[in-house]
């Protein structure tokens, strides 16, 4: 948790509040609104004012006004301190929120994007800029790197003077090229060392510049250039550039789309084993090697991969200066620096109504049969019963038509691991090995899953049906994948130490070649691309071409919610899954001696007596071991991290109250340490309570090997504290004379059902979608769909190195959009099985247009907010089209198809994306655009900036067996009107129908409003199209 601003109390909101639209700063006429940046008075008059962004304004019954703010940090307030490249007006947008009295606001200010700040002609006292987000607890930045300049590779500081090279247009610090600031100001021309060297070569080859009359001036400039050249050469010789991975796209079609490659029979886009494919593969690989050899110095690079099946390019490990040369090499379209990747983490088949679907011919014995699902993740545990091929009533065959995988053997993964259920397994580690020193103990170079995440994801989508879930000798029920008869193809590309996009793109490239039907990516980049549009990164382009090859791609939306524009899945050709809670809970109650039950969290066995026997309740701070030599800090005492800190005679046989304090917030304290302490000292059980000084904390249902419960809410912790203090006798010094408080811990392993659901999980990343690093909104709805992703039981690797608490377990209860994505993938597999001729966009449409926006109690789906336990009505940016409904998705009535050419037209319709950049990324020149990107035929309508009026079109195809008449209804977002033409229509089987959507702005709200278009069919089909519009 972030620190509290000195002198400002972190006031907690109280009941009876009302939201305000604005607030007038005390003593002024200035008005502030939500979203404005303000200066706030510090307690120390010698310090500059704090800078914050207002998130909410509210007043209580006494008209006391408070503001919820998100703090900006100055560089000197960060853990790393101020650096050379930090400007005087630079701020970091932190994850530190507070509720403050509005009278501490001193004035308004403007925090510009870095790009806009550099364009200011006059910088005023109220102008600041921000280019990083900052995690106050860890000191981590997003992005963790930015564009660098000069030979020193330092990020740009707008306060510093720089000189631009006339040749390559790069910028340099005067001191780095041996020129003083005064000399720089007098220069008429400047060329860097590399460009000067090229000048010399051209002169030696007989290429001369046009005559210049001022020969003296030319000689002076030439002399200066060579002086700089010599100086910089000496600098380079003494300065070793740090290597990085670069992803490179080349001219020419990949194998899957080359005109000379004939399609294979039975639906495959191409045959990778054909002679023509092999010839083209060799041609592409040779061209990659030739570009590297002709452009880069020998020994300066290491080629990691050739991408040849879905995109034409390669990954190379080299220095920034060598990568710069590649940008100018013949045949190279795009060079992009690699980014890191991160992982996004029995009951859900019943929640989704899948047993009813499985009652169709074949039942669960046939659900997903013939479909191959690819998983780019951390690998798989082939020994897990969820992936077994033996002992089944309907054994798996070892051959799948139209699929050509391979079983890549290695440590803990023998060749027979591919058993018919697992039909292919490969690993990709060249990027990881180039970027970090891998740990041979945990970073196993084989498809084996030493993390557990990949096994969890694969079993959620396609695990065998009816596998018993037993953890700590307790039976939790039976687990099943959504499509239990689907086959699994594994592409391991993420390791415990590191994950790189180079490995992920190589995995996608191979998956397309192998012929998977569904591709699941419960992983994603840890930041948006720095120098290109989000849609045009090599990673997103690889997904675009996978979609072109007929593969349904589903991606986790991200786990950075609940703030806006936190999605890490950007493109309309990948279905982005948000995560929700189900109606199942695992309550672990603390039963107090006064009869009160305080509900907590934890998959725990009860204390002896199952709640009927009460035990001594001891606060860890009151059990201090005075004989020990150790620091008297919170971590050692109240957080129960070290056995030597506690008196064994006091805590043995007791339920010990541990406190979630500073150590947990900064990551040095763990639940594992509490459990170890409890075992060593013989606790009867433990309770981890919230510390009022740090606020509520996030708790997950985790299996404990000793009795325990987590109380993440301060309010519940205060109930326990009040009872404890009432019952505990202390002397005048505050030391305990007698422990009279008693308690028991109930069974936390027994699930309760019927809670409100679905609810968008707090961590689930939110829209709006955005097109660049500055988070400018895009005309695309993200996330696309909501699916179960909170506390999901699925397979786990018992040899996992990820979490010691889960070590040795075959199953884990995990949360994350990583868990939501395989639910959507499994449903897509069932649809693909039923309708093998459907394109990925038709499957995506069926899933989206049939989703529900209501919870199980009939109300609108709610979403969790910033405060633990807080809820608000969800919008399309929280839940996409709504909560997935598989049975309706199997019979959608209408679908909205889109093809590869439509996505190109969409890109070419975007006014802020350069057409040459589109050509470089896709290999396709812009032809006819849509006129407006909102005309892409998606099952949603999103307009990020509506001025006046706009008409967009949607084209529907009837996939039902009969003709049907549909009546159209529009619910317009605030500040707009919508007219639908035609208002009704009749459509024949396989027929198409266009719908014109005329949208007019009536009020410039400058914020998104939400509505929907509903088409109701005469045969009971209902098609819902979510609408999100920002009138400006």
UniProtKB/TrEMBL annotation:
The active site is at residues 377, 453, 818. One of its GO terms (cellular component) is nucleus. Its main location: nucleus. InterPro entries: BAH_dom (IPR001025), BAH_sf (IPR043151), Peptidase_S8/S53_dom (IPR000209), Peptidase_S8/S53_dom_sf (IPR036852), Peptidase_S8_His-AS (IPR022398), Peptidase_S8_Ser-AS (IPR023828), Peptidase_S8_subtilisin-rel (IPR015500), Peptidases_S8_3 (IPR034197). Pfam families: BAH, fn3_6, Inhibitor_I9, Peptidase_S8, PHD. GO terms for biological process: flower development; negative regulation of gene expression, epigenetic; proteolysis; regulation of photoperiodism, flowering. The keyword Signal applies. One of its GO terms (molecular function) is transcription cis-regulatory region binding. It comes from the Eukaryota. Residues 30-145 form the BAH domain. Belongs to the SHL1/EBS protein family. Belongs to the peptidase S8 family. This is Zinc finger, PHD-type. It comes from Corchorus olitorius. The lineage of its organism: Eukaryota, Viridiplantae, Streptophyta, Embryophyta, Tracheophyta.
């Amino acid at each position: 948790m972030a620190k509290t601003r000195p002198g400002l109390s972190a006031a907690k909101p109280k009941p009876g509040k009302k939201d305000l639209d604005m607030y007038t700063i005390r003593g002024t006429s200035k008005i502030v609104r939500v979203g404005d940046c303000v200066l706030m008075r510090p307690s120390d008059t010698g310090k500059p004012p704090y800078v914050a962004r207002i998130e909410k304004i509210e007043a209580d019954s006494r008209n006391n006004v408070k503001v919820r703010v998100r703090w900006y940090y100055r560089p000197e307030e960060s853990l790393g301190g101020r650096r050379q490249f930090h400007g005087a007006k630079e701020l970091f947008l932190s994850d530190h929120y507070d509720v403050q009295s509005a009278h501490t606001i001193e004035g308004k200010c403007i925090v510009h994007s870095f790009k806009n700040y550099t364009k200011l002609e006059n910088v005023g006292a109220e102008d600041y800029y921000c280019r990083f987000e900052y995690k106050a607890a860890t000191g981590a930045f997003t992005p963790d790197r930015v564009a660098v300049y000069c030979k020193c590779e330092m990020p740009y500081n707008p306060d510093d003077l720089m000189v631009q090279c006339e040749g390559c247009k790069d910028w340099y610090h005067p001191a780095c090229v041996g020129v003083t600031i005064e000399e720089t100001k007098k220069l008429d021309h400047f060329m860097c060392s590399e460009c000067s060297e090229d000048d010399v070569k051209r002169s030696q080859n007989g290429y001369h510049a046009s005559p210049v009359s001022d020969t003296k001036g030319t000689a002076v400039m030439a002399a200066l250039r060579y002086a700089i050249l010599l100086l910089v050469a000496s600098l380079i010789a003494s300065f070793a550039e740090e290597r990085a991975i670069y992803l490179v796209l080349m001219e020419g079609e990949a194998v899957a789309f080359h005109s000379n490659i004939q399609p294979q029979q039975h639906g495959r886009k191409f045959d990778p084993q054909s002679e023509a494919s092999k010839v083209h593969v060799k041609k592409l690989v040779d061209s990659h090697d030739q570009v590297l050899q002709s452009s880069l110095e020998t020994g300066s690079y290491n080629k990691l991969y050739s991408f040849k099946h879905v995109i034409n390019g390669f990954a190379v490990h080299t220095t920034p200066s060598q990568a710069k040369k590649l940008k100018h090499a013949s045949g190279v379209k795009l060079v992009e620096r690699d980014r890191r990747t991160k992982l996004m983490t029995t009951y859900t088949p019943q929640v989704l109504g899948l047993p009813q679907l499985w009652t169709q011919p074949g039942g669960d014995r046939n659900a997903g049969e013939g479909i191959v699902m690819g998983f780019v993740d951390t690998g798989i545990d082939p020994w897990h019963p969820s992936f077994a091929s033996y002992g089944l009533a309907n054994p798996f065959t070892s051959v799948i038509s139209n699929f050509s995988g391979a079983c890549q053997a290695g440590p803990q993964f023998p060749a027979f691991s591919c058993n018919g259920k697992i039909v292919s397994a490969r690993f990709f580690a060249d990027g990881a090995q180039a970027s970090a020193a891998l740990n041979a103990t945990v970073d196993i170079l084989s498809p084996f899953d030493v993390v557990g995440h990949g096994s969890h994801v694969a079993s959620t989508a396609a695990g065998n049906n009816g596998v018993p879930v037993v953890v700590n000798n307790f039976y939790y029920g039976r687990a099943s994948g959504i499509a239990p008869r689907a086959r699994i193809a594994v592409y391991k590309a993420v390791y415990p130490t590191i994950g790189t996009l180079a490995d992920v793109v190589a995995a996608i490239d191979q998956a397309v070649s192998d012929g998977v039907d569904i591709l699941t990516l419960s992983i994603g980049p840890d930041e948006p691309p720095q120098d290109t549009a989000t849609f045009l990164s090599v990673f997103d382009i690889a997904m675009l071409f996978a979609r072109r090859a007929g593969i349904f791609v589903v991606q986790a939306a991200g786990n950075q919610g609940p703030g806006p524009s936190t999605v890490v899945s950007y493109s309309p050709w990948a279905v982005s899954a948000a995560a929700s809670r189900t109606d199942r809970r695992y309550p672990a109650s603390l039963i107090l001696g006064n009869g009160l039950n305080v509900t907590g969290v934890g998959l725990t066995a009860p204390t002896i007596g199952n709640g009927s026997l009460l035990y001594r309740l001891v606060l860890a701070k009151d059990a201090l071991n005075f004989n020990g030599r150790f620091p008297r800090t919170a971590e050692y005492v109240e957080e129960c991290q070290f056995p030597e800190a506690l008196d064994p005679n006091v805590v043995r046989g007791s339920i010990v109250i541990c406190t979630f304090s500073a150590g947990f917030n900064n990551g040095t304290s763990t639940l594992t340490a509490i459990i170890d302490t409890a075992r060593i000292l013989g606790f009867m059980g433990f309770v981890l309570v919230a510390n009022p000084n740090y606020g509520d904390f996030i708790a997950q249902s985790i299996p404990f090997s000793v009795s325990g419960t987590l109380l993440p809410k301060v309010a519940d912790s205060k109930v326990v504290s009040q009872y404890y203090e009432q019952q505990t006798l202390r002397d005048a010094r505050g030391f305990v004379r007698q422990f009279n408080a008693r308690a028991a811990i109930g069974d936390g392993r027994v699930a309760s059902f019927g809670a409100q659901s679905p609810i968008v999980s707090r961590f689930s990343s939110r829209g709006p979608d955005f097109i660049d690093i500055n988070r400018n909104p895009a005309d695309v709805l993200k996330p696309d769909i909501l699916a179960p992703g909170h506390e999901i039981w699925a397979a786990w690797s018992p040899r996992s190195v990820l979490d010691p608490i889960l070590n040795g377990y075959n199953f884990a209860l995990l949360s994350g959009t990583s868990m939501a994505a395989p639910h959507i993938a499994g449903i897509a597999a069932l649809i693909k099985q039923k309708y093998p001729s459907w394109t990925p966009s038709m499957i995506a449409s069926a899933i989206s247009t049939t989703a529900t926006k209501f919870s199980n109690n009939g109300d609108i789906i709610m979403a969790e907010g910033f405060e633990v336990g807080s809820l608000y009505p969800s919008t399309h940016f929280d839940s996409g089209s709504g909560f997935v409904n598989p049975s309706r998705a199997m019979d959608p009535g209408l679908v909205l198809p889109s093809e590869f050419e439509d996505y190109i037209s969409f890109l070419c319709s975007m006014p802020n994306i350069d057409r040459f950049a589109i050509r470089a990324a896709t290999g396709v020149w812009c032809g006819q655009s849509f006129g407006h990107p909102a005309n892409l035929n998606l099952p949603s309508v999103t307009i990020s900036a509506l001025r006046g009026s706009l008409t967009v079109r949607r084209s529907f195809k009837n996939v039902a067996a009969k003709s049907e008449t549909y009546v159209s209804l529009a619910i317009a977002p605030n500040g707009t009107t919508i007219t639908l033409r035609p208002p009704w229509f009749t459509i024949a089987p396989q027929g198409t129908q266009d719908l014109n959507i005329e949208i007019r702005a009536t009020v410039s709200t400058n914020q998104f409003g939400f509505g929907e278009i509903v088409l109701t069919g005469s045969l009971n089909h209902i098609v819902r199209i979510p609408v999100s519009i920002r009138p400006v």
